[in-house]
């Protein structure tokens, strides 16, 4: 059994980690920490958990943590993990960070879109935790920067095709739609039921901080700089993310080749479900770590339309983090992520 | 491993059974049958299941079924199970029926609210599957009539108090609210998104067929005829059921006694969570087999307000059915029902 | 044209007043005041209004207000109106207050459930603005205490029957369900989309401050003290309120008499729609000032089930306030409230 | 007063027409016809309308209709209007058809995507009812083919820019999202609450029949053939449509020029609200005939992102039809469409 802690357990991603880890057959969940709710039982914050999780959310105490766990998940706002992670790594813990702090190879890019980075020295050893793409690197990582939800939904369909040089990277448009839980647990006018319900709108058009994260990975894969157009939208649902991507195949590339490329790349990967021309539905991945991918060619002007669906809190956050833990520890990547999906 | 089949797997209760049984550690799910979708893979009807369930929905064939399973769940519309169950029992199968066909001891009551009963001879041996109440009888049952969702939500808070003679049974009012999945998978104006969304209304006021089912159990428990007022309402949500019950304690009975009675009755029962004065929330039991129960006394006129929350498809249908299977087979009642709940 | 102002225009009830007054053929909307958003254009707070309302939300300035309007609606949190209203009345303005400050005849009752009252001297002249019940008093009122949403939904079905002595007031149970807008515009965990969506729960069981308001009116009408059991619930929808009331007819009173009593009481009142045994649906009154009322007798134990549906922001707040203004000014009560309802 | 009839009043677009026409100051609504519900009162089909509309839905009878109305709206499934409209025009009625039957100039295009056209002779005189674009032609039209909801949302932002030759028409991608009412009143698994709620997916990717309709108009405006990529998605909300369009400005064209072009084109048009960089929200146009338009330039790769929001049943169907009637009759285009929007 691996001894695990969750730093920042009271946010949505943290709570989803708790849900998954509480049911993981090889995990002993030993420590939860929260900032605002320290001292409270976790099941008072999330009463759904009563009877399943009896831990108390404690204030962060590095020494105590180091004694009681082998691996930690940090589910904190950006900027906080960078101040905690160096000490934890020094003491031999493995760390999976769900913030943006360790997602970038280039500190300058991080700093251009977030704030100054106080632990940039760790970036070279941090591995970007897109589980199906960087599997080998994750196996030997001590520090994983877990991907954002939007990047996961955009990169999983695109990376294999760009790696195989099948699409023209000058046209890459990602129109993404997220459930409200992506905005976090904090109460704000953005998350007020009456402002979200019966509403649909774009936000942060062309300026969302997940854009440089996607571009860094795509550029890495392509071997040349890539500029993506990315527009996120807010959907009146709790969980789920659907993304429609518009691009074009390189000259002569057929839909069959596109499909075969995806099939080959994702062969044996349990969580990737290729759906052919059937549009993926966020409902079908709710509560699961699956990513459904669909693809259609609009032959009239040779545009390739890729679509993906994930649960933003699972494959887009906590689930992929657990998958990364499994990979880091040499276990089956689907361990603890095998609950049968809900039919509706 | 017990070999299990689901008759009527394509409806919501059937699909929820498939979800739970696919993850049950002691179950080998061997057969699914459907009427309308026979010949289709189950994961074509419910694409969420792709990768988890690879069975085909077959047409019903008693002989084939009898060879391949030890226990069946029948999740069919009322009137259909009564024509299938006698043969299955004769052949030594255990049967858990989710329709109303085997819920009543008295065929006349069934026939007054449903239609003529062609297998009334089985009613004496059928056990009403309210798991926490009829546990002993379920242990030795071959045929279980699984409770309706509304009766489950109403009976669990009331039965212990009536058994202990703590409340005045002349005043029993149950105001219940159900998510839309309770109306089933069939498309109708009732289930049309635009008629349910932003809507709230009562239906079948004073005439719902679950009323005689509740009254039969309550009368059995009380040892005298009980007439309940029951009004169901439809809530714009997929799953979940909340019921508020209004009654009055007998002279001198305190809220403390009410609570102690419930605590004693449900001691050691994993799925019953007593919440004190905190109102149970359908959100906190979503996807789980739990029943949350709350209780408050309005001292000004000595009215006891009981509240319960369940997931109508789980504790209100498929989950309780699996719990009953566990009990019938001498296993831990929570086996296969232990997935950690969702925080949101 | 009557010159009108809205004090507290940025909350939901205030904004709904703006919507209705902007379209009222006899109203000149001259002043909007807000506390937090002073200086902002109203259509920046509510962008839906762009092109319809071009007023700026100003800070409250009694002198300026008095010069520019003849009648004000105060849509402020409890305790604030009592400090403003005396001066406004002194200067000859008519006031319709949407808070609880002027709903009670007895200051002691107000103070028992709210806070000390600094303008209790005005209570004798304040008229409770339940439009169809206190029509005559409203006609000559200068100060109206506009009813709460729950009281409106409970009182409209009950008052005629209690006045006519047709029901036994010892059993009065109101199980009410409200859309989320009833909780106001402020962001809180209560109104967070992810906590409300797919959720259903009771709150403030037996302790909601609308209970004494209802009891005061019912007792006034009955001529004897009445204690009601009232439990509010929260529904995942933006607008709407449905209430189911359980009571019993006095000996020998028939459902026909109940219906005739309601028909006679509400004859000629445009906004009351008697629905017979058809359960009223919140969807059918959305955006309108109507109150739909249904009634059924559960003959087995002689229980009368009354149901009502209103839009909590219209008949439950702003719409009834406009209706009261119409009555105070001797105009048709439906003026400015005649927009045809939405089919869905 | 103009005497008006609605053919096909029981569908959602028909019912929305009834709502608008019932409140139109210059309209006498004289006839409603339905196929399935003939003989029923309209307010039995849509109980929200009780007290506002007392007409009975009659079976279609051309003679009777011709005697009683001057103008008809046909809100029927495709293929039905073409069999009725010729006779109505012959008898001097004006016709606004909400189906696709009279939207195409070229019968071959219609027939390629729908079915054979039996009244193709009328196509030359039919005017495409995009109110702000074909205003002059609508003024003198006897037959208007009212635009589809998706085309309205796509064309309003694009037409001025293409007319002014400001954008490169080789890149035109429209990612559109619609509320469920767009699928109509018929019950189907598509519209089942449990399949739509908490779901988000694309459908008819690259094959929706609104694509040729948009392309025909865009090509007409551009003076050259245009092929658009169009992907519609389904949003769990009742009403509303949001579309995000990706294109690129021609060399040297600035965002300022884009904005000025839109401002000039839509100067004085009440229903077009230019929002600058603020993303339009479907919530802000709910129940209104407005079209909100936003625009942002992603300067990194010179992509122009246009966004629009409409209510699919109003500006996307019935509202625009009424606007067209106003224009045809020489009235103010906003007559009967002036109800103040809801704040939430």
Write the topology of this structure.
The structure is a homotetramer of 344-residue chains.
Chain A: E1 2-7, H1 12-22, E2 27-33, H2 42-45, E3 57-58, H3 62-68, E4 71-74, H4 81-90, E5 94-97, H5 107-113, E6 127-128, H6 135-139, E7 143-145, H7 149-163, E8 167-178, H8 193-196, E9 201-202, H9 210-222, E10 229-234, E11 241-249, H10 255-265, E12 272-274, E13 291-298, E14 303-310, H11 314-328
Parallel strand pairs in A: 1-2, 1-4, 2-3, 4-5, 5-7, 6-7, 8-10, 12-13
Antiparallel strand pairs in A: 8-11, 9-10, 11-14, 13-14
Helix pairs in contact in A: 1-11, 7-9
Explain how this protein is built.
Four copies of one chain form a homotetramer. Chain A has about 350 residues and is α/β, with parallel strands linked by helices. The first copy, chain A, folds into two domains: about 1-125, Rossmann fold; about 150-310, Dihydrodipicolinate Reductase, domain 2, CATH 3.30.360. Helix content of chain A is about 30%, strand content about 20%. The first copy, chain A, contains eleven helices and 14 strands. Chains in contact: A-B, A-C, A-D, B-C, B-D, C-D.
């Amino acid at each position: 059994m691996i001894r695990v802690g969750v730093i920042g357990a009271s946010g949505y991603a943290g709570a989803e980690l708790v849900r998954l880890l509480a049911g993981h057959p090889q995990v002993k969940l030993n420590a939860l920490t929260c900032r605002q709710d320290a001292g409270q039982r976790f099941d008072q914050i999330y009463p759904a958990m009563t009877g399943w999780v009896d831990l108390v959310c404690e204030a962060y105490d590095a020494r105590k943590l180091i004694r009681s766990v082998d691996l930690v998940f940090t589910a904190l706002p950006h900027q906080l993990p960078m101040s905690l992670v160096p000490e934890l790594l020094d003491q031999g813990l493995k760390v999976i960070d769900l913030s943006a702090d360790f997602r970038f190879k280039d500190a300058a890019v991080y700093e251009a879109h977030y704030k100054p980075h106080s632990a940039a020295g760790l970036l070279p050893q941090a591995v970007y935790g897109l589980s199906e793409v960087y599997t080998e690197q994750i196996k030997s990582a001590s520090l994983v920067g877990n991907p954002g939800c939007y990047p996961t939904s955009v990169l999983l369909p695109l990376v294999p095709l760009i790696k195989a040089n099948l699409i023209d990277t000058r046209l890459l448009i990602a129109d993404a739609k997220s459930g409200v839980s992506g905005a976090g647990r904090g109460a704000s006018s953005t998350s007020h039921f009456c402002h979200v319900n019966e509403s649909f709108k774009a936000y942060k058009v062309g300026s969302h901080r997940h854009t440089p994260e996607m571009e860094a990975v795509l550029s890495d894969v392509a071997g040349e700089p890539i500029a993506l157009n990315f527009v996120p939208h807010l959907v009146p649902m709790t969980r789920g993310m659907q993304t429609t991507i518009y691009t074009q195949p390189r000259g002569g590339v057929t839909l069959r080749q596109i499909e075969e490329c995806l099939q080959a790349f994702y062969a044996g990967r349990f969580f990737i479900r290729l759906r052919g021309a059937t549009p993926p539905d966020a409902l079908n991945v709710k509560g699961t770590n699956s990513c459904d991918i669909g693809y259609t060619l609009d032959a009239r002007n040779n545009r390739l339309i890729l679509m993906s669906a994930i649960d933003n809190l699972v494959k887009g956050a906590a689930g992929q983090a657990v998958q990364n833990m499994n990979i880091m520890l040499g276990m089956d990547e689907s361990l603890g992520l095998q609950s049968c999906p809900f039919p509706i």
